[in-house]
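Illustration: Radical SAM protein.
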Amino acid sequence: MSLDGWRAEDHDRFRGAGSFARALTGLARLAEYELLPIVTATQNTDDEADALRERYLAVLRAAGLPRPRLKLLPMFRLGREVERTGGYSPADSLADLPPGAFDPTRLQCHSCRAVTSRGVFVCPLLVDEEGARMGERIDQALGPFELSHGACSTCYTTGMTCGNA
Ligand code: SF4
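Result:
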């Protein structure tokens, strides 16, 4: 489950009127059955990460989740953010970084692929991005991926991983 803001007005701006309340209702229902969903949220404000995390956790606790699990994601210049930020430029590529410059096992793409009706993509972030489709089937998509997309630089600079909270 994803939230695009810790206030209804922020989330609903991206997802539509009433969607924040519906999301919290759904989360509360899961908690009633002692399920502990991981909520992902994007760091789309200038708030310090710790302060933002506390705001989300307070909202989730108030919604009825006694032990909320939150994963705060950096803002990627993809989708609607391309219009607002101008997206990535070729200079953002990691393709030229020397081997050993960072630990690729920490990247989401090291241990996952995104399977869609349009084929298999290197990671969920780059679904439908040019060059990120690795094949029709999962067995065609298990090889290495050159980290040449600008979004890879956001993973690199923010330490974004697929580890769960
Ligand atoms: S954006 Fe690049 S570095 Fe990040 S998970 Fe996807 S392929 Fe890997």
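Reading the tokens back as a structure: Residues 19-32 form the longest helix (14 residues).
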